[in-house]
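User: Here's a structure from my thesis project, written as structure tokens. My advisor, Dr. K., wants to see whether a designed sequence matches the one we expressed. Can you design one independently, without my sequence as a hint?
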């Protein structure tokens, strides 16, 4: 097995660059294809997550808790669903009935008013 020498690598690289520059089709593919793929995948892939099913357990039932839930409802990212208190948040997540759970404990409104 021959040793890899820097001169040999430079010679092969120089030869390949010469062939690419001489052949217009290869040059077009070498430069155009990556640009085309970046533009294509820029439009195809959308990493914005929307309509995340958010189940809300509002145990406080105050104006402040409803306003807090309204903030999430107003965004395009969450689809807010209210749940009865008989269901368990853990069961909803494990059963994939919800992607996120918000539990508003009693006293939330009082804590907000106190600052």
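Assistant: Designed independently from the structure alone:
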């Amino acid at each position: 097995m021959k040793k890899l020498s820097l001169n040999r690598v430079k010679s092969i690289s120089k030869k390949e660059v010469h062939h690419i520059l001489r052949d217009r089709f290869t040059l077009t593919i070498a430069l155009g294809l990556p640009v085309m793929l970046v533009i294509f995948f820029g439009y195809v892939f959308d990493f914005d997550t929307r309509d995340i099913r958010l189940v809300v357990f509002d145990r406080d039932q105050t104006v402040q808790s409803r306003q807090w839930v309204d903030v999430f409802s107003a965004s395009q990212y969450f689809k807010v669903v209210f749940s009865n208190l008989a269901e368990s948040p853990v069961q909803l997540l494990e059963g994939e009935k919800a992607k996120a759970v918000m539990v508003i404990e009693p006293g939330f409104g009082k804590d907000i008013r106190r600052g």
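When you compare it with your expressed construct, this may help: The chain has a mean pLDDT of 86.
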